[in-house]
Amino acid sequence: MSAVDVRRPAGSGTVLALASHGPAPGLHFQPVDDFIVSVVHRSSHAEVVRDIGQGRQTFTDAPRRVFVTPARTPSYWSFAGTPMVLHIAFPWREVQAFVELPEEDAMRRMHSLARAPFEEPVLNTVAWRLWAAAGHGGHVEDLFTEHALHLLLATLLLRSSEDVSGVASGARLAPWQLRRAQEFMRSRLSDPMRLADIARTVGLSQHHFLRAYKASTGQTPFLWFTQQRIERAKELMARRNMPLTEVAYALGFSSLGHFSTTFRRVTGKTPTGWRQEWVDGSA
Do 206 and 98 meet the contact criterion of CB atoms below 8 Å apart? Predict the structure, then answer.
């Protein structure tokens, strides 16, 4: 038996289900048109048996382990322990729209991830942040949800590229593509960052742009965009008569709290602390 808490992020067909599983000798699930990512949160370190058409797999329900069930795939599960698992069901049509690959290639990528459980720190952290955000409506939560869902899919795609080819892709952006993408982002620091819009400016799919941008710069477009926002914020904060709330709203932050949290994460200092140091240093 399982106790299940279900949340549906706004603006997406994705469904989140936090399940506290009890010992079960065997559970059969019919195929669904969803791509399911399961992240173990709490674990009894007991045996789990699974079969998704690739042969019977036996492993331990260790915390932070990730299991993938491809769309349209029947599955069998047997739990000896009592794990708590966050299941994220992505509609297959949304996965395909993000991947922008032919049906056969997209399905092959997802099946490669299902060969065995794995650990992926970024995916694990983002998944649980997504669960928390989905429980609270609001502009900040909705904005985070959109980015989080894309980041989860992008992380899985990067991993599937390694699984399929044996090596990570080293494709980079051409100099003009990198310059145009960064100019586009820099010109829209007050707006939400939308990966699809940036990729379109350089003629690439979201997936290919994300991989190539990270190969070219060593960081994601979202991280670079956030850093640019903070650098612009510093320029505005140097104007001593401009309230921090106005700085926050001028750069698209939904609140002073959101701005302060982001500023401190990037710089290690609060906006007030940074401004005081700047004032003292320029006096």
Answer: yes
Instruction: Report the pLDDT value the prediction gives residue 127, as an integer from 0 to 100.
Output: 92
Dmax over CA atoms of the chain, in Å, equals 72
Do the beta carbons of residue 228 and residue 186 sit within 8 Å?
Answer: yes
**Are residues 195 and 97 in contact, defined by beta-carbon separation less than 8 angstroms?**
no
State whether 14 and 149 are in the same domain. yes
pLDDT above 50 for 122 = yes
Residue 205 CA to residue 208 CA, distance in Å, equals: 5
Q: Can you tell me the distance from the alpha carbon of 106 to that of 14, in angstroms, rounded to the nearest whole number?
A: 18
- Quick one: pLDDT at residue 283? 53
Confidence (pLDDT) at 165: 42
Domain ranges, residue 211 = 169-218
Task: For residue 85, list its beta bridge partners.
Answer: 19, 40
| Residue 233 token pair | 């914020």
Give the least confident one: 36-45, 112-121, 153-162, 165-174.
165-174
Specify whether 154 is located in the same domain as 255: no
Structure tokens at 23: 């010992």
Residue 274 belongs to a domain with what CATH number? Answer: 1.10.10.60
Share of the chain above pLDDT 90, in %: 28
Clarify whether residues 28 and 58 are in a common domain: yes
Query: What does the block give as tokens for 140?
Result: 């900040």
Distance between CA 73 and CA 93 in Å, rounded?
15
Entry pTM: 0.61
